[in-house]
Amino acid sequence: MEYEVTIGLEIHSELKTDTKLFCGCRNDFGGEPNTRCCPVCLGLPGTLPVLNKKALELAIRAGLAMNCKISEFSKFDRKNYFYPDMPKAYQVTQYNLPICYDGYVDIETDNGIKRIGIERIHLEEDAGKLVHDAYADGSLIDYNRCGVPLIEIVTRPEINSAEEAKALFETIKSILEYTDVSDCKMQEGSLRADVNISVRPRGQEKLGVRTEIKNLNSIRAVYRAAQGEARRQIEVLSEGGIVCQETRRWDDKKGESMAMRNKEESMDYRYFPEPDLLPVIVDRDWIDSIRKSLPELPRARRDRYVNELGIPEYDAALITMNRKLADLFDRAAAVCGKPKLASNFIMTDIMRRINDQGEGILASSLNGDNLGEVLLFLDQGKITHASAAKVIDVIIETGEKPDNIIERLELWVQRDENLVNEIVKSVLEANRQALEDYLAGKEKAFGFLMGQVMSRLKGKGDPAQVRETLLREINKG
Ligand SMILES: [Zn+2]
């Protein structure tokens, strides 16, 4: 029997604010445990929360960037649960009136563009962190993260494969980065996803029983968990079993999921309106001004690269996925005036460095201005490609100016006619066998002679000039 997979994502993203959602404590990753908390985020009796306006603005920003409607009237609710990571024994969240609802994002699939609905985006506070490993005889709690502002983005169950889940997650991540809503540092947990999955026999109308895999904190984990869980459910069903509605945990090392607990129904949380916070009433004009402040989003940027700059679709997609990379490209292309040269160099040399050294190089001294300058020298034939690559390495390390580096390392292309003539003559003299081979029709021998001349020029010769001079001397002789 053939099965159809249905997936929905719930993405939690920490917001880039200075302070927490309802108090003045710093919102920053790390810090000595329990040094960034106060009576409000610890939920001590008698304290009152005050909503952080910046967090509300960022949530609206995310909603607008994902084509959502914005509620002019929304409110906060208490989600009651008893667990030590939340000392109040409830989480302040938004239940039936989320700040954003009914939006969509477009993702790239093998069959073209697919539109995935965003059911809602709501604001809520993060919980503290349990530390299990530090001490053998118990768990400790760090409340620094308690009360950090989050948005939860809930997609409609319109994803049909692990590939689509990955594409959607990547797309939403890049939108959050472009709009400066979140730093999306997945290794620090500021972006994480829950994946809801069910399978059903193809053609059946009713959705299958779904399971939820919680707290996936890398793109790879989302992909592998979606793939693994779909496979597991299909196996269960084809063997005549039934899938239980439950929450599961993904073990990325083992590549399998295991049951954690039965899935709670929302009634288990006894939601009720948060009595300590006023309803949120948002002004139309404010929403419009937030809308106007949105930057060019990945999709629009990519279309501009393809249609206006003639960049290949694949390259444009890859470059725009990362805002810093796209900014680097934009500036470098403007400085050197050659968008294709800039995109080619980024797709090869810069991508290779990102793969080897990590995304940190995009936060180094390398920027669009100095990259553009290097590309300009390359385009004008003043340095070779190998030299350009060398200059980039030095820039990343020291931030030195391109022309200084080229001067200091003597990388300018050597075009001195007398010098080139002299070297060509002496190379031909010293390699008579190669010369004879070439004259006897062995093309390879010419490459060898070229190489000899280039190496005597320390790799800085102009290949066209060297070739020309070599041919001229050979034909003379
Ligand atoms: Zn606090």
Task: Briefly summarize what is shown.
With 477 residues, the chain is α+β, with helices and mostly antiparallel strands. It has 15 helices and 16 strands.
Question: Could you outline the blueprint of secondary structure elements for this entry?
Answer:
Elements: E1 3-14, H1 53-65, E2 69-70, E3 73-74, E4 77-80, E5 90-93, E6 100-109, E7 112-125, E8 129-131, E9 140-142, E10 149-155, H2 162-178, E11 191-201, E12 211-216, H3 219-238, E13 246-251, E14 256-262, E15 272-273, E16 280-281, H4 284-292, H5 298-309, H6 313-320, H7 323-336, H8 339-357, H9 368-379, H10 385-398, H11 402-408, H12 417-430, H13 432-439, H14 443-456, H15 463-476
Helix pairs in contact: 2-3, 5-6, 6-8, 7-8, 7-9, 9-10, 12-14, 12-15, 13-14, 14-15
